[in-house]
Amino acid sequence: MRDFDELIMRRALDLARLGLGYARPNPVVGCVVTHAGRIIGEGWHERYGSPHAEVNALAAVTDKHLLPESRVYVTLEPCAHYGKTPPCADLLISSGVRDVVICNLDPNPLVAGRGIDKLRAAGVRVETGVLEAEGRWLNRRFFTFQEKKRPYVVLKWAETADGLLAGRFYQPIQISGELARVAVHQWRAEEQAILVGTRTALHDNPNLNVRDWPGQNPVRVVIDKNLSLPPSHHLLDGQQPTLVYTYRERPARTNIDYIKLPEAEDLFPCILANLFERQIQSVLVEGGPTVLTSLLQHGLWDEARILRNPKKLGTGIAAPQLGIRHLHEQVTLGDDTLFVYHHYCA
User: Fold this and answer.
1) Is 211 annotated as a binding residue?
2) Where is the CMP/dCMP-type deaminase domain (predicted)?
3) Mean pLDDT throughout 257-263?
4) CA 272, CA 259: separation in Å to the nearest integer?
5) What is the pLDDT of residues 119-167, one digit of tens each?
6) List 42, 54, 77, 191, catalytic entry
7) DSSP secondary structure code for residue 165 in this structure
């Protein structure tokens, strides 16, 4: 039975993955309903504010009389509170479901075991922890946000074979190839925000939007301590929500909020705390070496994605150096090699 449970839960995790970039700031969740060893319904949380995975999976079951004899697999503990939708635990109970298998418990204080307690109090058999590690990885943004009270931080940069990421005077250099560029746009679609510093904003004049992958544009975050960005730059065009962190006062504009930082405090803990208050669950950092190195030194990162190209510059600005690092994945993208590292804090 354990092998079958893992097989079906893996299918539920695959369904949950379809919600990446759309369900945020909610976690991604998948659900599968089985009867007599076959799947009779499945669904996932498709978009924030839309029906949850359990609702979609139960709705997909054509013969509702089978539900009392069915086994329901869900990747995250069913909610027990009213939010944008009614509690899924109540739906499972009212549908007559008597057997539920759960991958992960929900760390959200509004749930945190209450969904399981409600199910068990109604006589539902509940099993937990099936493919728990895989579920935590899939929802790493959500778990980091709930447990560490800050967004999940992904560092990204491209470097040459001789360890450089820009020209001598910070002028932008095209390092990565086409496949890497598409991958970066996929990452932008998957994260809720994207952050750069003043120098990157000035020299690169980036749009920081999603153009080569389907999905939503992230919230743009720029550090501009002295408000030195010219109004003609893309980051100030009002085309997507943008947060500007600064030491100076400036009133908000259409789609642009200016957040005054206290000069006496550390910059990044303050910024991440503010992003947490704004319910920003994850941030992709595409800044230059100053921003990246500062986050590394503070230990305020969870994942680093480094694109390395065989070309050499000879002279230029050196890429950051990772300290504690755990190589998670190595992928070839055309002429580039992607190295994905995880940061585990003691």
Assistant:
1) yes
2) 3-127
3) 92
4) 12
5) 999 999 999 999 999 999 999 999 999 999 999 999 999 999 999 988 8
6) 54
7) E
Both structure tokens of 41? 């319904």
54 is catalytic: yes
Beta carbons of 280 and 264 less than 8 angstroms apart: no
User: What's the count of helices (H) and strands (E) in the chain, helices before strands?
Assistant: 10, 16
Question: Of 233, 281, 274, nearest to 257 (Cα)?
Answer: 274
Tell me: is residue 291 an annotated ligand-binding position. Answer: yes
pTM for this prediction: 0.90
Q: Which helix or strand (DSSP H or E) is residue 329 part of?
A: strand 326-333
Whole-number pLDDT of residue 346: 40
For residues 319 and 344, which has the higher predicted lDDT (pLDDT)? 319
For the chain, domains (ranges, CATH) are 2-142 (3.40.140.10), 149-342 (3.40.430.10)
| Whole-Å CA distances, 125 to 16, 32, 92, 118 | 23, 16, 12, 11
Give the residue-averaged pLDDT of 314-342.
Answer: 90
Nearest CA to 335 among 302, 301, 298, 310? 310
| pLDDT over 90 (residue 264) | no
